[in-house]
Amino acid sequence: MASAPAPTQAYLETLLLYYEEEVEGEAYFATLADLAQRSDHRDKLNLLARVENHAAGITFPLIQKYALRPRSNATLSRSGQDQASAVLKPWGDLVADMARTFPGYVDDFLRLEAMAPPQDLPRLKLLTEHEVAAIEFLDLELSGTRDSVAPLHAYLEKDI
Length: 160
Ligand SMILES: [Fe+2]
What we know:
Layout: H1 9-35, H2 39-65, H3 73-86, H4 91-115, H5 121-142, H6 150-156
Helix pairs in contact: 1-2, 1-3, 2-5, 2-6, 4-5, 5-6
Bound molecules: fe (ii) ion.
């Protein structure tokens, strides 16, 4: 039986980049949470940080599998913190901005899936799902739904 074709360099580079962005994202949301004025906003941002952490954890075995070398957690966290400090804005604007930009990330994750060896797909689909859960949260938040965080809690329950 022929062995599976080697993953492409483009796939491996994108996988590494997206993994690193989840680690940055955790620090980004945690920093926004620290800066939040209201406790409910702080809780929601901390939940987004946990979702990023969970997505990174789901992806990490693929980083190990291909012996990829992410930048250090300290470097990535600092980058996330710097990005958060640069975007300080009112809650409504923050949510609206995320609701506008996050669907593009789903497209990015789907392109990563399309490049992937089939055996990597279960983890990558769960990576994609974290962005879908975040978008569901944002849509509920924008519509004023009380339990807007339900999709985030549901995502945190998922694992492989
Ligand atoms: Fe993310």
